[in-house]
Design goal:
This protein has 316 residues and is mainly α. The protein has one domain (3-315). It contains 14 helices and 2 strands. A hairpin with a 5-residue loop joins β1 (172-175) and β2. The longest helix is centred in the N-terminal third of the chain and has 27 residues, at 3-29. The chain starts with a helix and ends with a helix.
């Protein structure tokens, strides 16, 4: 098997790990305060990955550490909204599609905040995504549920996180306050991920200490609670990011992002089998439009993948 094919296969595994983590997380928040769960999940996952990244962590400069923590704070804010959406939401499948809106919002953030040019497909995807979002709120007479609002807020902040994460992971030139051009050295993927995860854990721990009651979770824990927390941390977070980092190191091709778009589809399928969830026709139509928007948004990459496959078949 070639490295490119191995990378694709591993990225499919990543989407499966991410999707199954929704099930673990939902089980956990039914048994403990949501922010307390997020703190435990991310501190465990960040601690595990720190073992693999200990040398690269020691090699980071102060500026690289500062930027990584900044990325983590934005990530932590997004995860706070996400877990509250998970806690209050009534449909995991719907929530996954709403969260995936972040992929569509990323180029908008990049354009508005960082003035980066975007392809026409970006602006075509936005009205399709908005139409899908409108359909998902129709069942309430355009009065979105609390879970839906939290998921959309999470998607918007995730978009900012994705943009900042990409900029931190790539070297670039910036002009400082004195007007001098300064090179911002890239932060390697693994230590960047470790610091971001640990920052999320510490942020949600602080939020939990202020906003949540820890009893009776600590005094009378459910027998399965530890399993859901550890499974979410090890499989859905640490394992997922380790495999994703390794998979992306195997191939320089960018079509992996198309594979990652499958996550909400897997979540909907898992939720149907795990919790017996079903969707109305309007919900299915809304999710379908959001998925279509994801494909349109990634059409430039997807078209290159299709053309490459066709060329390989002709030369085979």
């Amino acid at each position: 098997m070639s490295d490119a094919h191995k990378s694709d296969l591993l990225l499919v595994v990543v989407t499966l790990f991410a999707a199954i983590s929704w099930m673990f997380s939902k089980e956990a928040v039914l048994l403990m305060p949501p922010l307390m769960f997020m703190a435990a999940r991310f501190l465990i996952a960040g601690g595990m990955l720190a073992f693999f990244a200990r040398r690269s962590l020691m090699a980071l400069s102060l500026d690289q550490v500062r930027r990584s923590i900044g990325v983590g704070l934005v990530f932590g804010t997004a995860m706070t909204f996400w877990v509250m959406g998970l806690f209050h939401g009534t449909s995991l499948g719907e929530g996954a599609f709403l969260t995936s809106l972040g992929v569509v919002i990323v180029p908008v953030i990049a354009r508005l905040v960082f003035l980066e040019a975007q392809p026409p497909s970006t602006w075509l995807a936005i009205p399709i995504a908005v139409a899908g979002l409108a359909l998902l709120s129709l069942k309430n007479g355009f009065r979105p549920e609390a879970g839906q609002v939290f998921f959309v807020m999470a998607a918007t902040i995730f978009a900012l996180y994705f943009t900042l994460n990409t900029r931190a992971a790539n070297q670039r030139s910036v002009v400082n306050r004195l007007g001098k051009t300064v090179e911002k050295h890239r932060v390697p993927a693994l230590p960047l991920t470790v610091l971001a995860l640990l920052t999320v854990g510490l942020l949600t721990l602080t939020e939990s200490m202020i906003l949540e009651q820890w009893q009776p979770t600590l005094s009378e824990p459910h027998p399965l609670l530890a399993w859901w927390v550890v499974a979410s941390a090890v499989i859905g977070t640490a394992g997922r990011f380790l495999i994703q980092t390794y998979a992306q190191s195997l191939s320089a091709n960018s079509h992996g992002v198309v594979i990652l778009v499958l996550e909400p589809v897997w979540v909907a399928l898992f939720a149907a089998g795990w919790f017996g969830e079903t969707m109305t026709t309007i919900q299915l139509a809304g999710c379908g439009l959001i998925f279509a928007a994801l494909i349109v948004n990634r059409w430039a990459v997807l078209s290159r993948v299709i053309k490459a496959k066709l060329r390989n078949q002709k030369t085979a």
